[in-house]
Design brief:
This protein is α/β, with parallel strands linked by helices and 280 residues long. It is 44% helix and 14% strand. Helix 5 links the parallel strand 4 and strand 5. It starts with 5 loop residues before the first helix and ends in a 10-residue tail after the last helix.
Amino acid sequence: MTDLRLDDALGLLADLGYAGVGLTLDHMHLDPLAPDLAARTRHVARSLERLGLTATIETGARYVLDPRRKHGPSLLDPDPDACAARVRLLIRAVQVAADLGAHAVHCFSGITPEGTPEDTAWQRLAEALGPVLDAASGAAVPLAIEPEPGHLLSTLADFHRLRHALDDHQLLGLTLDIGHCQCLEPQSPADCVRAAAPWLRHVQIEDMRRGVHEHLPFGDGEIDFPPVLEALAATGYQGLTVVELPRHSHAGPQLAGQSIEFLHKAATEAIPAPAKGGTP
């Protein structure tokens, strides 16, 4: 929804019946580096409350820290000052999430820098997340790291490697992207949901094809969605499930309407309404 003003985007989502928003901290909506962040965050909090929306804070903005490097610098950057800039951004995101009453803060590892041994990259990631998890603990806001194709942490198995390295930290959770499950996980997306359930703090959803990391509108890929939504319901997951089509902002309003209609239909197929007089 980056082609819309934030207030307009929030109003549209509320009118369409969405329960909340995945709010990416970036220059076009809530810029984490611009002055008066606290005051601007209070304005967003009032808008969310007025519209009856909740939020998850996303930190996947492409060029928010460096206008020349997509998603740079990352938590894996060999330059300590560059890595610290990403850590500061995530800590700031935790504060924004706390001020908005958001469900979680999303993040990802980043791509392993060229020439960096794998063990060094994993150690660097665990160390960089230490102060972020400290902030998350102080704010009581979960950190939800996302397995991202091409990144150091790209699979559910990688998440568990990090979780064990951080002694199963209570505030370290998982962002599960349903399309990524279709793209590269050995299990089906529904089975991924069930396997991830104990650590699930945030869910992103879109269509995708096997082996191709391209976020697609619903129906343009290969995912069977009713089993996915049935699995989510069975886990008792209470966070947001956000539609993620980052390259479709030009058609944001139209796709937002089509997406929620598709998901409502898929949810009805997954979890039929009880018969009249039956147990809900």
